[in-house]
Amino acid sequence: MTLRLPVVPGDGVTLRAFRATDAPLIQEASGDELIPLITSVPATNDHAAALAFIDRQHERSRTGEGYSFAIADPADRAVGQIGLWPRADPGSASVGYWIRPTARRQGHAAAALGALVDWAGTLPALARLELYVEPWNMGSARTAERAGFERAELMPAWRSVGGTPRDMVRYALLLH
């Protein structure tokens, strides 16, 4: 099942498909201490590896795995990624996002999450969104809560990060 990746406007951001010209975003993110551990961003700043990552994001919508958007600022410079990933239980999806280190604390994540939630609300088969945040990541927790997500539960040792089991807090949002 192929998913159509739309262009989604937001407040100061646009969610769009990744482009080859977004490779510097992936290369910068590869140097972050956390992003390569919790995403499929390569842990090398190699240009070819960045392009392979971008190709994988396009493949996700072609195979129906999910929607992977580049978060672009008003100058159309990619500053991060946000994704919507359908879950096995019908009507629900997971959300994940990250921002490149040099673009953090500028409101991009909040604007992108708000735009994604608004767009997800137009998908008739989707009723519930979830996202997962490590307990120490207060910035991401505040971003989720501002977008309407509610803290649902602490999930001990729920996800392996760099080979170490880590606690996660599950946040949920009902769309309809």
Automatic annotation (TrEMBL):
What keywords tag this UniProt record?
Transferase
Domain of life from the UniProt record: Bacteria
Q: Name one GO molecular function term.
A: protein-N-terminal-alanine acetyltransferase activity
Q: Its GO CC terms? A: cytoplasm
Domain spans labelled N-acetyltransferase: 13-176
> Record keywords: Transferase included?
yes
Give the Gene3D superfamilies listed for this entry: 3.40.630.30
* TM spans (from-to): none
- Name of the featured protein: N-acetyltransferase
